[in-house]
Amino acid sequence: MSISTILACIASLAQFQACDTATGAAVERANLNMASSAASAKGNRLDQDLRGTIVATPVRGAPQPTYSDIAREWSGFYLGGSLGYGFGESRQQLDRGNNHGYDEVSPDGFAGSMTAGYNFVVGSGLVAGIEADVGIMNLSDDDKAVFDAHGWKSQFGPLWGTVRGRLGYLFGDSMLLYGTAGLAFMETDNWTVGNNWNESSWDGKMRTGWVIGAGVEYALTDAWSAKAEYLYMDFGKHHGYTEDADPYWYDDNVSIVRVGVNYRF
């Protein structure tokens, strides 16, 4: 074999090996590109799945208060205070011939009290309790001429109070709408001065009667609450006789509109 032939064979072999190497590199690059594309597609699908899971998962709000939470918040002993406006009516009847009879006045003014009570939750949303007030009031009216120039002055207070039951319903866990009823007491000073002492009538004493009302109380915190309330107190008729044995009576009632706060222990 000639040298030229040997050289030609060596050149052909080298060319074949270079081609084979280039082909292998190309195949390897293709495989790498396919793997990268598959990984990228898999990552995209995973990212989409995760986003879908996050979107589909509902966001949970604050936990709702349970029955025991509400019972614990509203049950127990409490103290409070209130301020308000009182307006009443005092009616008088004096039987003395044909020139005496019926008249009325409307005392009004300030009323305030201290309160103590106890609540307990008796069912789903129902709150029952007992509450007592003791306070001062100053309800009065201008002097009024009645009958044949008698002078009438009416004043309610200074001492007053109530002992009442309460029954209400909770709206949510914060607002209590309630009704209340019980016993009431109040000092009165109804004084009608006649033309002489024998014709005068007087009703100055501690009176007792009944009370009814309604209100709304709102929990500001676990311990503090604010309330707005209306009370109507009726003390009925008080009968008496003048020194001349003329019969008379006074009939008193009072309405109180007030706001206050309570602190539960």
Number of helices: 2
CATH topology of the largest domain: Porin
N/C terminus separation:
119 Å
Strand order of the largest sheet: 1-3-4-6-7-8-9-10
Strand content: over 45%
What string gives the helices and strands in order? HHEEEEEEEEEE
Helix content: 10-25%
Quick one: overall form? elongated
What's the count of strands? 10
What does the average pLDDT come to?
Answer: 81
CATH architecture of the largest domain: Beta Barrel
Instruction: Indicate how many domains the architecture comprises.
Output: 2
CATH class of the largest domain: Mainly Beta
Q: What can be said about the biggest beta sheet? A: 8 strands, antiparallel, barrel
| pLDDT < 50 runs, ≥5 residues | 16-27, 52-59
Helix vs. strand class: alpha+beta
Radius of gyration from the alpha-carbon trace, in angstroms: 45 Å
Give the tags.
265 residues; alpha+beta; Porin; 2 helices; 23% helix; elongated
Secondary structure elements and pairings:
Blueprint (H helix, E strand, L loop, with lengths): L2 H54 L10 H8 L1 E19 L7 E4 L2 E16 L2 E15 L3 E3 L3 E22 L3 E19 L7 E19 L4 E18 L5 E18 L1
Antiparallel strand pairs: 1-2, 1-3, 1-10, 3-4, 4-6, 5-6, 6-7, 7-8, 8-9, 9-10
Walkthrough of the structure:
This protein has 265 residues and is of the alpha+beta class. The protein has 2 domains: 1-61; 68-264, Porin (Beta Barrel). It has helices spanning 3-56, 67-74; strands at 76-94, 102-105, 108-123, 126-140, 144-146, 150-171, 175-193, 201-219, 224-241, 247-264. The relative contact order is 0.15. Residues 16-27 and 52-59 have low confidence and may be disordered.
